[in-house]
Amino acid sequence: FPSGNETFEKLGAIGTLSNLLIYLTTVFNLSNIKAATIISVFNGTANFGTLLGAYICDTFLGRYNTLAAASLASFLGLLLIQLTAAIPGLHPPSCGKSSDAATCKQPTGGQMSFLLTGFALMIIGAGGIRPCNLAFGVDQFNPNTESGRRGINSFFNWYFFTITFAKMISVTLIVYIQANVSWSIGLAIPAILMLISCALFFGGTKMYVIVKASGSPVTSLIQVFVVSIKKRNLKYLDSNSLFNYIPKKSINKPLPHTDQFNWLDRAAILTPADKINSEDGSPENPWNLCSLQQVEEAKCVVRVLPIWVSGIIYYLAIAQQGTYAIFQANQADRRMGNTKFQVPAATYGVFLMLSLTAFIPVYDRVLVPFLRRLTGKEGGITILQRLGVGVLISVLSMLVSGVTLGMSDRNRGEISSMSAFWLVPQFVLAGLAEVFGAVGQVEFYYKQFPENMRSVAGALNYCGIAAGSYLSTALIQLVHRTTEGAPTGNWLPEDLNKGRLDYYYYLVGGLGVLNFGYFLWCSSGYRYKKAKDEVVQPEVKGSA
């Protein structure tokens, strides 16, 4: 049920957004710039909003309550957007055959307010569902049993399988109905699917393992940094002299002391001025004294951040398959063989999804057991090794993109002369990169963050995606302005036949190579989180 919750959210949100640009320009008579701005603001806010959602989840509501509220918000948002299509008074009159938004009647303030309220509710829904859903699913497994640990590993793989399957349906069936049958019916489908999601989610309530909110983990992190700065001049002796305290209700596993980032250890130095509560042994002022457990939890987050930075460049490469690869397909020959039927340019992204959904079962059921026998590791390979393979394949996808484009015309890289099906290999490689890189990143964050920060871990992944998209936008603008007067000509003009898109792909691939070197450097000194006296309990029949 938790996995299905976000699956239906993706079916609804992506099914709507995939065609919403056209909806805003044809039904609401907005200009391309206005429509693109609304969608860009929505995407960026929804991804970065996961940080706020994670904070509210971990601090106040808990994962179950956050998901419940967010699911209802998503349904209401989709319903409001559907009503703008179904009720004539909620959108301006049709422009007819006119394609100039300036000559069409623009939406009233009330109509736009109704539409934007739907967007706002969807942002609230995404901000709550995306960071909490996967963490809530992981809560259902017992990590102290062998089957539970293996179940968590498989859960990450199959979670992405269902999400990607939902995306495939969204960008094919739902988009087709919206564009060719009826906007009213096409937008009703996502709303109905989200309603089914709510019914499934609430239907499983009695079966769930529900972990209550345990206070703000972010506040605890800030306290460690503040106190370590306050005590920066104190002499550090050894770990035995450090103050340690673990609240009885803490859901975090006790962590042993590590000798990395020793400057943070000063936050746990007990001085005569520090007072301890006699009742439970906690510090009276947590802004003057932190526990060793707090310090080690902060170290877990600090260790993850350099790896997260490398993920931004990884997502930069993946982002190209959803932007310029689609523009490239739009100008290429999209005919099916000798027929007149043309495959829509946006549909070529399905090959990335097909690659991901086809290889995840192979990876989970064939490759992992095989590698497990060779290495003795639960996941077959370490999480960082999985990430490294993903980064490397993303670089390969960019190089193949450039080579394929260059093969169409050795002199100018003409796009119109090539079949769009030559783009399939780069989409397939991008899908394989997602199997290792995207799934691996989510698994890495969830396993390496403290247990009470799993929602923040989910938000961190979405922030990486958003940062990669913003970096892609900035790089495109930089390349466009820099090469506009260059001897080679503008690499990224409106007519890609006149540009050097292959050079741009090589540039992104070159950044990927540098990023791979940076990733290897970060990985070489990384220390995995390991609980103190970690023991795997014997299997209990029926447990996961």
TrEMBL record:
<keyword id="KW-0472">Membrane</keyword>
<keyword id="KW-1133">Transmembrane helix</keyword>
<keyword id="KW-0812">Transmembrane</keyword>
<protein>
    <recommendedName>
        <fullName>Nitrate transporter</fullName>
    </recommendedName>
</protein>
<dbReference type="GO" id="GO:0016020">
    <property type="term" value="C:membrane"/>
</dbReference>
<feature type="transmembrane region" description="Helical">
    <location>
        <begin position="419"/>
        <end position="439"/>
    </location>
</feature>
<dbReference type="InterPro" id="IPR036259">
    <property type="entry name" value="MFS_trans_sf"/>
</dbReference>
<feature type="transmembrane region" description="Helical">
    <location>
        <begin position="156"/>
        <end position="176"/>
    </location>
</feature>
<dbReference type="InterPro" id="IPR000109">
    <property type="entry name" value="POT_fam"/>
</dbReference>
<feature type="transmembrane region" description="Helical">
    <location>
        <begin position="383"/>
        <end position="407"/>
    </location>
</feature>
<dbReference type="Pfam" id="PF00854">
    <property type="entry name" value="PTR2"/>
</dbReference>
<dbReference type="GO" id="GO:0022857">
    <property type="term" value="F:transmembrane transporter activity"/>
</dbReference>
<feature type="transmembrane region" description="Helical">
    <location>
        <begin position="343"/>
        <end position="363"/>
    </location>
</feature>
<feature type="transmembrane region" description="Helical">
    <location>
        <begin position="68"/>
        <end position="91"/>
    </location>
</feature>
<feature type="transmembrane region" description="Helical">
    <location>
        <begin position="112"/>
        <end position="136"/>
    </location>
</feature>
<comment type="similarity">
    <text>Belongs to the major facilitator superfamily. Proton-dependent oligopeptide transporter (POT/PTR) (TC 2.A.17) family.</text>
</comment>
<feature type="transmembrane region" description="Helical">
    <location>
        <begin position="37"/>
        <end position="56"/>
    </location>
</feature>
<feature type="transmembrane region" description="Helical">
    <location>
        <begin position="503"/>
        <end position="522"/>
    </location>
</feature>
<feature type="transmembrane region" description="Helical">
    <location>
        <begin position="183"/>
        <end position="203"/>
    </location>
</feature>
